[in-house]
Amino acid sequence: MELTVHTRALIDLALMEDVNGGDITTRATITVDHRSRAVVTAKEDLVLAGIPVFRAVFERLGEDVLYRTAGTDGDFVSVGTAVMEVEGPTATLLMGERTALNFLMRLSGIATLTRKCMDAVAGTGASVVDTRKTTPGWRYLEKYAVRMGGGRNHRFSLSDGVLIKDNHITASGGITMAVGRARKYAPHTSRIEVEVSNVEQITEALDAGADILLLDNMPPGEIDDAVSLIDGRALTEASGGITLENIRDYAEAGVDFISLGALTHGARSVDINMKIVAA
Question: Considering 130, 142, 193, 195, which one is annotated as catalytic?
Answer without folding.
Answer: 195
